Known about the structure:
Blueprint: H1 3-13, H2 21-38, H3 49-61, E1 76-80, H4 88-94, E2 99-103, H5 107-120, E3 125-127, H6 131-134, E4 144-150, H7 155-162, E5 166-177, H8 181-185, H9 188-194, E6 200-203, E7 213-219, H10 234-237
Parallel strand pairs: 1-2, 1-4, 2-3, 4-5
Antiparallel strand pairs: 5-7, 6-7
Helix pairs in contact: 1-3, 2-5, 3-4, 7-9
Amino acid sequence: MNTHQKQLLNSALRLNIELDSVQLGRFQCYLDELVDWNGRVNLTAITDCHEVQIKHFLDSLTVAAALPAPPADGYRIIDVGSGAGFPGLPLKIAFPQIEMTLLEATGKKCAFLRHISTMLGLNVNIINMRAEEAAHLPEYRGQFDTATARGLASMAALAELTLPFLRMGGLLVAQKKGALADELKGSERALKILGGAPYEVHPLALPEFPDGRCLVIVKKIAPTPENFPRRSGLPSKKPLT
């Protein structure tokens, strides 16, 4: 076990997540392939081993604080705007019993997701579509227990891009940081229209994250009207504020 693996192991324990040697090996393979592919495909600006462990892997695992402990077999998560697989793939590594779907609009990033999922031996569903399109398909609409998103959009737009995927009682878990008061206030109308309860903010009190990171959690309590999400681009260009 190298220094970076020990760091991830100990940091994950603060989240009550125990990683075994197989899981740590998968994270190491993930890191190696991420750095290798990043020379050809723009996946991430973070390639330092230490920073990947903290700002990608550990940051992704913080989502577990909003999930059942542990998630049941077949617990369904959709990671919207997955990019290079964050937070979806680290969660799948830590909790292999999760049924994980990665939704990503960029074809080259989907190619990486397929490659790394195969290398890691992870059974995940990868969808190369925009959320505005996928959320209207019956096989995805209203089918998930949790929707995750990291750095995808403001909360008002994010609600429109994610809540349609959730079953009644499902959770949107958005990873956010910094000053959020205006953004969250501006999302209240969207949540009401789209079937979400008022948001809850869960600060992340970990020494690795001194930048005010938090999870913004929204429970789906009413059906999302059939006309949402609107056509591609509108949720972000004209959010329901």
